[in-house]
């Protein structure tokens, strides 16, 4: 059995988002997995990345957050709340982020969790640079070997988030999270579970939603992840630009998905 971390970001314990989080805990526990939940609002999580994150700053007169983050992680002088969340990520075999889409992204408290917990040396600034290799990122890194999935509740209508919808494709809106936050430090990212028009969901519609979500959670360790291209697997050149002949027929962020007929990725 596996360990699963759920990072939950909704201020209302009776919300649909919270109900999905509770269902995930129930389903995973019934399967025999061990589950831990970081309920950010209930924890009173500090979402602000600032000088208070460093107990022994290198330069107390002028804050350079990345440099201080690197020093604090390497020297063990991060604040305890950051260290605890990092240990949870290292413990986990899979990570679920459950949140409502607010202003086309995650709530500020969840973004602040990422900004503080994904420290230099932990989630970025990892690995050697040289030749076409720019460190261990995008498919490699500290969190490699783990799975991740987003559970997103959305107030708008599904057609608005389609390829020609006025809000743009949902996958494009979630790209900074799925590719830039989760895949960047190495996690395999599953397609998201999204529910639309959540503020109009009727009680009689909940059983169908719950059944669909339960099925996705039960297959957390079986479903195929989004086929993002790995940075160091031969598809990008020395400037980290996709090589000619790849991504043909696609546009936007979709060129960074492995396509049928693409040459196999090879380890570098």
UniProtKB/TrEMBL annotation:
Keyword flag Plastid: no
Any one GO CC term of the record: cytosol
Keyword vocabulary terms for this entry: Oxidoreductase
InterPro entries in the record: Flavodoxin_fold, Flavoprotein-like_sf, NAD(P)H_dehydrogenase_qn
Boundaries of every Flavodoxin-like fold domain copy: 3-216
A GO molecular-function annotation: NAD(P)H dehydrogenase (quinone) activity
Entry annotated with the keyword Repeat: no
Family to which this protein belongs: Belongs to the NAD(P)H dehydrogenase (quinone) family.
Protein name: NAD(P)H dehydrogenase (Quinone)
Source species: Roseiterribacter gracilis
């Amino acid at each position: 059995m596996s360990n699963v971390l759920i990072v939950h970001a909704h201020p209302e314990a009776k919300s649909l988002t919270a109900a999905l989080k509770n269902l995930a805990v129930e389903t995973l526990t019934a399967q025999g997995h061990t589950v831990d939940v970081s309920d950010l609002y209930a924890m009173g999580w500090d979402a602000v990345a600032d000088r208070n994150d460093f107990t022994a700053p290198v330069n107390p007169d002028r804050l350079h957050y990345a440099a201080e983050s690197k020093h604090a992680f390497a020297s063990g002088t991060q604040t305890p709340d950051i260290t605890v969340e990092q240990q949870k990520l290292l413990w986990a075999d899979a990570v679920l982020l459950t949140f409502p889409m607010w202003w086309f992204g995650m709530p500020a408290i969840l973004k602040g969790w990422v900004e503080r917990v994904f420290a230099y040396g932990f989630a970025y600034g990892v690995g050697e640079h040289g030749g076409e290799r720019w460190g261990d990122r995008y498919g490699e890194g500290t969190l490699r070997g783990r799975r991740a999935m987003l559970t997103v509740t959305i107030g708008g209508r599904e057609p608005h988030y389609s390829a020609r919808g006025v809000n743009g494709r949902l996958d494009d809106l979630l790209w900074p999270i799925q590719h830039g936050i989760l895949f960047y430090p190495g996690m395999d990212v599953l397609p998201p579970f999204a529910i639309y028009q959540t503020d109009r969901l009727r009680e009689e519609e909940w059983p169908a939603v719950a059944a669909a979500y339960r099925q996705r959670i039960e297959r957390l360790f079986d479903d195929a992840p989004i086929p993002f291209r790995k940075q160091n697997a031969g598809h990008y050149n020395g400037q980290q630009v996709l090589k000619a002949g790849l991504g043909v027929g696609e546009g936007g962020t979709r060129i960074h998905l492995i396509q049928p007929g693409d040459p196999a990725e090879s380890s570098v």
